Protein backbone atom coordinates (compact mmCIF):
# COMPACT_ATOMS: atom_id res chain seq x y z
CA UNK A 1 0.00 0.00 0.00
CA UNK A 2 1.45 3.33 -1.08
CA UNK A 3 1.16 6.17 1.37
CA UNK A 4 1.86 9.60 -0.09
CA UNK A 5 3.80 12.12 1.96
CA UNK A 6 2.22 15.08 0.26
CA UNK A 7 -1.29 15.55 -1.04
CA UNK A 8 -2.33 18.58 -3.07
CA UNK A 9 -6.05 19.26 -3.03
CA UNK A 10 -7.30 21.08 -6.14
CA UNK A 11 -10.97 20.15 -6.12
CA UNK A 12 -11.89 23.49 -7.66
CA UNK A 13 -14.90 25.69 -7.30
CA UNK A 14 -18.55 25.27 -8.12
CA UNK A 15 -21.07 27.78 -9.39
CA UNK A 16 -22.26 30.16 -6.75
CA UNK A 17 -26.05 30.10 -6.65
CA UNK A 18 -27.28 33.43 -5.31
CA UNK A 19 -30.01 33.18 -2.66
CA UNK A 20 -32.68 34.76 -4.85
CA UNK A 21 -36.38 33.94 -5.05
CA UNK A 22 -37.04 31.82 -8.15
CA UNK A 23 -33.39 30.81 -8.63
CA UNK A 24 -34.36 27.13 -8.86
CA UNK A 25 -36.74 27.77 -11.77
CA UNK A 26 -36.83 25.40 -14.77
CA UNK A 27 -35.08 27.85 -17.12
CA UNK A 28 -32.16 28.53 -14.77
CA UNK A 29 -28.83 26.98 -15.80
CA UNK A 30 -25.42 27.17 -14.13
CA UNK A 31 -22.76 28.78 -16.29
CA UNK A 32 -20.19 26.16 -15.24
CA UNK A 33 -22.48 23.42 -16.60
CA UNK A 34 -22.58 25.07 -20.04
CA UNK A 35 -18.81 25.62 -20.14
CA UNK A 36 -18.13 22.01 -19.10
CA UNK A 37 -20.54 20.72 -21.75
CA UNK A 38 -22.88 19.18 -19.17
CA UNK A 39 -25.77 21.34 -20.38
CA UNK A 40 -26.38 22.54 -23.93
CA UNK A 41 -28.23 25.79 -24.39
CA UNK A 42 -30.07 25.71 -27.68
CA UNK A 43 -32.21 28.27 -29.46
CA UNK A 44 -33.76 31.19 -27.68
CA UNK A 45 -33.07 34.35 -25.76
CA UNK A 46 -30.44 34.09 -23.06
CA UNK A 47 -30.05 36.20 -19.94
CA UNK A 48 -26.75 35.93 -18.07
CA UNK A 49 -26.62 37.00 -14.43
CA UNK A 50 -23.06 38.17 -13.86
CA UNK A 51 -20.87 40.19 -16.20
CA UNK A 52 -17.47 39.11 -14.94
CA UNK A 53 -15.01 36.88 -16.78
CA UNK A 54 -17.26 33.78 -16.77
CA UNK A 55 -20.40 35.68 -17.79
CA UNK A 56 -18.61 37.41 -20.66
CA UNK A 57 -16.96 34.18 -21.80
CA UNK A 58 -20.39 32.54 -21.89
CA UNK A 59 -21.91 35.48 -23.77
CA UNK A 60 -19.06 35.36 -26.28
CA UNK A 61 -19.65 31.65 -26.85
CA UNK A 62 -23.46 31.63 -26.87
CA UNK A 63 -23.86 34.70 -29.08
CA UNK A 64 -21.51 33.20 -31.65
CA UNK A 65 -23.30 32.24 -34.89
CA UNK A 66 -21.19 29.08 -35.06
CA UNK A 67 -22.25 27.85 -31.61
CA UNK A 68 -25.62 26.62 -32.81
CA UNK A 69 -25.52 25.72 -36.50
CA UNK A 70 -29.29 25.30 -36.87
CA UNK A 71 -30.56 28.54 -35.39
CA UNK A 72 -27.61 30.86 -35.71
CA UNK A 73 -26.67 33.13 -32.85
CA UNK A 74 -28.76 33.62 -29.75
CA UNK A 75 -29.67 37.07 -28.45
CA UNK A 76 -27.76 37.46 -25.17
CA UNK A 77 -28.29 39.99 -22.37
CA UNK A 78 -25.87 40.32 -19.46
CA UNK A 79 -26.96 41.76 -16.11
CA UNK A 80 -24.07 43.07 -13.97
CA UNK A 81 -24.02 44.73 -10.53
CA UNK A 82 -20.90 46.77 -11.24
CA UNK A 83 -20.86 49.76 -13.58
CA UNK A 84 -19.19 47.81 -16.39
CA UNK A 85 -18.68 44.26 -17.60
CA UNK A 86 -15.48 42.18 -17.77
CA UNK A 87 -13.75 44.27 -15.11
CA UNK A 88 -11.88 41.18 -13.86
CA UNK A 89 -10.52 40.36 -17.33
CA UNK A 90 -6.90 41.28 -18.10
CA UNK A 91 -6.78 44.56 -20.11
CA UNK A 92 -5.30 43.07 -23.31
CA UNK A 93 -8.03 40.42 -23.47
CA UNK A 94 -10.77 42.86 -22.45
CA UNK A 95 -9.78 45.20 -25.28
CA UNK A 96 -10.58 42.44 -27.80
CA UNK A 97 -13.52 40.95 -25.91
CA UNK A 98 -15.73 44.05 -25.53
CA UNK A 99 -15.87 44.99 -29.25
CA UNK A 100 -16.48 41.31 -30.08
CA UNK A 101 -19.47 41.16 -27.70
CA UNK A 102 -20.81 44.38 -29.22
CA UNK A 103 -20.41 42.99 -32.73
CA UNK A 104 -22.38 39.90 -31.71
CA UNK A 105 -25.18 42.09 -30.37
CA UNK A 106 -24.71 41.22 -26.70
CA UNK A 107 -26.62 43.72 -24.53
CA UNK A 108 -25.17 44.68 -21.15
CA UNK A 109 -27.35 46.02 -18.36
CA UNK A 110 -24.92 47.41 -15.78
CA UNK A 111 -25.20 48.86 -12.25
CA UNK A 112 -28.14 46.50 -11.82
CA UNK A 113 -28.88 44.28 -8.84
CA UNK A 114 -31.00 41.18 -9.46
CA UNK A 115 -33.81 41.04 -6.90
CA UNK A 116 -35.75 38.03 -8.13
CA UNK A 117 -35.65 35.39 -10.84
CA UNK A 118 -38.93 35.12 -12.72
CA UNK A 119 -40.09 32.21 -14.84
CA UNK A 120 -38.71 33.87 -17.99
CA UNK A 121 -36.49 36.68 -16.71
CA UNK A 122 -35.48 38.78 -13.72
CA UNK A 123 -36.51 41.74 -11.62
CA UNK A 124 -33.60 44.15 -11.28
CA UNK A 125 -33.00 47.33 -9.34
CA UNK A 126 -31.21 50.18 -11.08
CA UNK A 127 -30.90 53.77 -9.86
CA UNK A 128 -33.38 52.99 -7.08
CA UNK A 129 -36.03 51.78 -9.54
CA UNK A 130 -37.23 48.26 -10.19
CA UNK A 131 -37.32 47.00 -13.77
CA UNK A 132 -38.31 43.69 -15.26
CA UNK A 133 -36.45 41.91 -18.04
CA UNK A 134 -38.44 39.01 -19.44
CA UNK A 135 -39.16 36.91 -22.51
CA UNK A 136 -36.04 34.80 -21.87
CA UNK A 137 -35.67 31.11 -22.69
CA UNK A 138 -32.62 30.57 -20.52
CA UNK A 139 -31.35 32.30 -17.39
CA UNK A 140 -27.68 31.55 -16.82
CA UNK A 141 -25.98 31.96 -13.46
CA UNK A 142 -22.45 33.31 -13.81
CA UNK A 143 -22.08 35.05 -10.48
CA UNK A 144 -18.77 33.58 -9.46
CA UNK A 145 -17.64 30.44 -7.73
CA UNK A 146 -17.51 29.06 -4.24
CA UNK A 147 -14.80 26.72 -2.99
CA UNK A 148 -15.32 22.99 -2.99
CA UNK A 149 -13.04 21.45 -0.40
CA UNK A 150 -14.25 18.69 1.86
CA UNK A 151 -11.22 16.59 1.05
CA UNK A 152 -8.46 18.38 2.96
CA UNK A 153 -10.30 18.04 6.31
CA UNK A 154 -10.78 14.32 5.68
CA UNK A 155 -7.05 13.93 4.95
CA UNK A 156 -5.72 15.86 7.96
CA UNK A 157 -3.73 13.56 10.22
CA UNK A 158 -3.69 10.79 7.58
CA UNK A 159 -0.92 12.31 5.46
CA UNK A 160 2.02 14.41 6.64
CA UNK A 161 1.37 17.40 4.38
CA UNK A 162 -1.83 18.64 2.78
CA UNK A 163 -1.92 21.69 0.52
CA UNK A 164 -5.13 23.22 -0.76
CA UNK A 165 -4.69 25.21 -3.95
CA UNK A 166 -6.68 26.89 -6.69
CA UNK A 167 -10.41 27.55 -6.40
CA UNK A 168 -10.64 24.93 -3.66
CA UNK A 169 -8.75 27.43 -1.48
CA UNK A 170 -10.38 30.60 -2.75
CA UNK A 171 -12.09 31.15 -6.10
CA UNK A 172 -10.14 33.45 -8.39
CA UNK A 173 -8.29 33.49 -11.67
CA UNK A 174 -6.36 30.60 -13.15
CA UNK A 175 -3.11 32.59 -13.32
CA UNK A 176 -3.17 33.11 -9.56
CA UNK A 177 -3.82 29.42 -8.91
CA UNK A 178 -0.98 28.43 -11.22
CA UNK A 179 1.43 30.81 -9.49
CA UNK A 180 0.36 29.36 -6.15
CA UNK A 181 0.92 25.79 -7.33
CA UNK A 182 4.39 26.72 -8.59
CA UNK A 183 5.19 28.29 -5.21
CA UNK A 184 4.14 25.12 -3.32
CA UNK A 185 6.12 22.97 -5.76
CA UNK A 186 9.24 25.02 -4.94
CA UNK A 187 8.65 24.56 -1.20
CA UNK A 188 8.19 20.79 -1.52
Explain what you see.
The model has no long low-confidence stretch (mean pLDDT 80). The chain is 25% helix and 25% strand. The protein is of the alpha/beta class. The strands form four sheets. Strands 3-10-4-5-6 form a five-stranded parallel sheet. The longest helix is centred in the last third of the chain and has 14 residues, at 174-187. It has five helices and twelve strands. The chain has helices spanning 31-35, 53-62, 91-103, 151-155, 174-187, and strands spanning 6-9, 13-15, 28-30, 46-49, 76-79, 107-109, 113-117, 122-126, 129-133, 138-141, 145-147, 161-164.
One letter per element, helices H and strands E, the order comes to: EEEHEHEHEEEEEEHEH
Q: How many H/I helices?
A: 5
Strand coverage percent:
25-35%
Sheet with the most strands: spatial strand order = 3-10-4-5-6
Shape: globular
The major pleated sheet works out as: 5 strands, parallel
The chain-level mean pLDDT equals 80
Termini Cα gap: 22 Å
Q: List segments where confidence is low: pLDDT < 50 over at least 5 consecutive residues.
A: none
Query: How many strand elements?
Result: 12
Percent helix, as a range, is 25-40%
Judged by helices, strands and strand pairing, the structural class is: alpha/beta
Radius of gyration: 19 Å
Amino acid sequence: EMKPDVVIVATGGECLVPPLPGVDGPKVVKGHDILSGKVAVSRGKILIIGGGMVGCELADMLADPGYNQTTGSAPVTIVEMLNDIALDVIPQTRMLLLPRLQEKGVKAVTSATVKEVLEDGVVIERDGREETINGMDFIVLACGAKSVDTLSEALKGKVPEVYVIGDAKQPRKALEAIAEAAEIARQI
